Amino acid sequence: MENPQKKLACLLAVLAVSAPLGAQTSDKLMEGINEYREALADGNPSELVAAEGEELWKLKRGPKNATLEKCDLGLGPGVIKGASAQMPRFFKDTGKVQDLETRLMTCMETLQGIDPKEVVNARWLKGEKEKMAALVAYIVTESNGHKVKVDLNNPAMKKMYDMGKLAFYYRTGPMDFSCATCHGDQGKRIRMQELPDLRTHEGAIAGWGSWPAYRVSNGQFWTMQHRLNDCYRQQRTAEPIYGSDVTIALSVYLAGKANGGKVVTPGIKR
Amino acid sequence: MKKISTLAVLLLALPSAWAAGEDTYAEFKAMMDRSFKTTGIAPKHRMYQLDFQKACSQEEQPAKAEIARIEAEQMKTIRYPADGKYFGDWKQGEKIALSGRGLTWTDKTPHDNGGGCYNCHQMSRHEVSYGTIGPSLLEYATVRGTNEESIKYTWGKIYNAKAFNACSNMPRNGDAEILTEQQMKHLMAFLFDPASPVNKK
């Protein structure tokens, strides 16, 4: 974390793709600012990633050489519109509450024969995780403007909500932090980064409802699993396993708090 | 970490104020157990709570008696400088206050950490990138005074913030071995030295 000017310079250096790293002269800065404006005028930078995802959705892949077009995200096979705004949800076929990413792993396994381990064990933004991010970008774009609608009357969902709440307040590790240390109060920030109060509906919709997102500071598209992983890193805990139940439980908790609020996905972040 | 022996405490009975039932809690612990793994310098046993961490893992503060018990216990952990010297070099202290690095699974060693003080505190007028989880420490020496009581209190607060506020959001820099004694001395100088930017108008 650094001071705002450095942060801006760094952000612009990343945006001005052609500019060498550490380009901080005012000329380069202006160049960067202009390119930044252009980039935003062109629309959400996630569009490129989403376009890749759409291709992947329709591409025959894996040992079974099949597409994902029959994948059921909860609204019936192949229905994408509005699907991610209603996730996590309980799926009868797996008997589990799944978020978008774990559900996609199920589809990849059953339809295409791709071993979920290939996603779980890949590094962020590499291999099958890179493909996952693209698929996610495509799918969440189709929920932009929809309302968060997760069903907490379902007993399995209710249970995950309760677990998620326990996880949210769970203090541990060498710094004694929990999610609530950083997201349990109104109007707080770490250095210059504003922290949503995720205990409240307003905070949860601002936080949960704007993810997955494109991160301008590093030019990367991050899924919700990636976001949660990095928060646990800052919390100084051990590493949560990709798609593990604690990540689903926290997602149900956040989505439950955000219920009824408007989804803006993919988001654009610092 | 020296506190591993305390892991056993995790099996203690739940505080009676716990919102969720015993069954849910047992299930929750099992879920946590299977959801995390060791990566780099961040071992899985970081997920096992110390006694007070557990008491402070609720929406509400623990009961008054519990708070008093925790604070008394944490107070006993504080080690004051053996040589009686509380102050190092404020310039080094400033660097430690600015650095938020350390103890994540992407860090190489658990022994080279920043204090991350600026993550949570305003500390000088010239550094505008400061967090607000903790109170402003601007002009600390003037506000708190430079008598022995104030100096010992501040050392103790940096060493183990929980001794003064059981469920404080501030880490236990000394007790949890985040910072060395020498680093804490530098931070003390940063807070108290009249030449330090903390105390500049």
In short:
Chain A has 270 residues and is mainly alpha-helical. Helix content of chain A is 46%, strand content 9%.
Describe the structure.
With 270 residues, chain A is mainly alpha-helical. Chain A folds into three domains: 38 residues; 96 residues, Cytochrome Bc1 Complex, Chain D, domain 2 (Orthogonal Bundle), CATH 1.10.760.10; 115 residues, Cytochrome c-like domain (Cytochrome Bc1 Complex, Chain D, domain 2), CATH 1.10.760.10. Chain A contains eleven helices and eight strands. In chain A, helix 9 crosses helix 11. In chain A, 45% of the residues are buried. Chain B is mostly helical. Chain B contains eight helices and one strand; from the N terminus they run H-E-H-H-H-H-H-H-H. Chain B is globular, with a radius of gyration of 18 Å. The N terminus of chain B is likely disordered. Chains A and B meet through helix 7, strand 3, strand 7 and helix 11 of A and helix 1, strand 1 and helix 5 of B.
Task: Give the amount of beta strand of chain B, in percent.
Answer: under 5%
Order of helical and strand elements of chain B: HEHHHHHHH
Count interface residues per chain for the largest interface: A-B, 44 and 52 residues
Radius of gyration of chain A: 19 Å
Separate helix tally of chain A: 11
**How is the quaternary structure best described?**
heterodimer
The secondary-structure element order of chain A is: HHHEEHHHHHEEHEEHEHE
Mean pLDDT of chain B: 91
Assign a percent range to the helix content of chain A. 40-55%
Keywords:
heterodimer, A: 270 residues, mainly alpha, Cytochrome Bc1 Complex, Chain D, domain 2, 3 domains, three-stranded mixed beta sheet, two-stranded antiparallel ribbon, 11 helices, 8 strands, globular, disordered N terminus, B: 201 residues, 2 domains, 36% helix, 1% strand
